[in-house]
Write a structure and sequence with these properties.
five-stranded mixed sheet, alpha/beta, about 350 residues
């Protein structure tokens, strides 16, 4: 406090409070104010101020209180206005509210505040409010506008629990499958280099691709097939035939609604193998429900870190090496099921 001098300035608030109370106690006992000020190394004026506060308010005015503004004090937006802006950001995208774009930035949130309350904020000012509201800058998940939320709900609450129950009753294996294409000219990824000088990665100018079909289980098993032709019903039947050959019990395979999966040829093949395998289809436009999508992403992320393929045969070999490596890493395969939107598979 400003009235303290000498060593007292460095004292903690609790120590300063104790000095004030002791000084007033000494004055109450009849001691002289100069005599009281000396041992505490404070000015006589400070002692006079404490005594005046004691006489008007008793002990309470002498107690220490937190310094600075109280939480929320002197904020431009009221608590109700802040709550309204926060909820608008969480429930809507900018274009829903007459602004531009689909992603919120501090500038756009500032525009929203001005639109609602005619108050201008700098971007750092908006950032302080965002921090206070517990909001952070994040990469959003993508969802197809064609996705049917009701179909997703039915999958979570009815279809998947029924598949799991049947598989247990039949002592069957459940796998999630998907197909993926890999191209020679896919994005390279990132590497280190000198600031301002973009690194160069040499690769062939020829364009070629290979495809793969894979299936994984919560037990860490992975089965795959790499092929160079386009994915169609014939390829799907070949993969199913290879897949059932690895099991001595029935398989329940969960896949998306690709036309090849639902083709007449595949249905005919399945009708001849009902005791060996059964197909189940995820809701349309819902890749986030399939853990094998993470295998595809892992593959495309891993390939650029290996030798650059100069032809289709080398790309196919690299792709097979990736799958063989993952087969020896069941802990990574099990980890694919730990994603935010995939935990339903493991939850009872």
């Amino acid at each position: 406090m400003s009235d303290l001098v000498g060593d007292a300035r460095a004292w903690s608030p609790d120590a300063q409070e104790a000095v004030r109370l002791l000084a007033v106690s000494a004055l109450v006992e009849g001691r002289d104010r100069v005599e009281v000020a000396a041992p505490f190394k404070v000015s006589v004026k400070a002692v006079d101020n404490w005594w005046a506060k004691w006489q008007t308010g008793g002990r309470d005015p002498l107690l220490s209180r937190p310094r600075g503004r109280r939480v929320g004090e002197h904020q431009v937006l009221s608590e109700a206005e802040q709550a309204a802006v926060r909820q608008a950001v969480l429930d809507h995208i900018p274009c829903d509210l007459g602004l531009s774009g689909q992603l919120w930035t501090r500038r756009q949130i500032g525009e929203l505040i001005f639109k609602l309350y005619r108050v201008r904020f700098t971007e750092p000012g908006v950032g302080k409010y965002l921090k206070r509201w517990g909001l952070t800058f994040q990469r959003p998940d993508k969802r197809a506008v064609e996705q049917d939320p009701e179909a997703v709900r039915v999958w979570h609450e009815e279809t998947w629990p029924a598949i799991r129950a049947r598989a247990r009753a039949e002592n069957a294996e459940v796998l999630f499958g998907d197909q993926v294409g890999v191209r020679s000219d896919q994005v390279t990824g990132r590497t280190w280099g000198t600031k301002g000088a973009t690194p160069i990665v040499r690769r062939t100018g020829n364009r070629f691709s290979v495809n793969a079909m894979s299936a994984i289980s919560t037990k860490g098993r992975m089965h795959f097939m790499v092929f160079t032709e386009s994915f169609d019903a014939k390829v799907m039947c070949r993969f199913l035939d290879r897949l059932v050959g690895h099991f001595d019990r029935k398989v329940h395979l969960v896949v998306d609604r690709h036309s090849a999966h639902r083709s007449k040829a595949v249905r005919t093949w399945l009708a001849d193998h009902t005791a060996e395998i059964e197909l189940h289809f995820l809701p349309s436009y819902s890749p986030e429900l399939n853990p094998d999508e993470l295998v595809n992403a892992d593959l495309k992320r891993s390939l650029p870190h290996t030798h650059r393929s100069r032809n289709q045969a080398e790309l196919a070999a690299e792709t097979r090496r990736f799958f063989h490596r993952r087969q020896r890493q069941p802990h990574i395969i099990r980890g694919y099921f730990g994603g935010q939107h995939l935990r339903y598979i493991l939850d009872e």
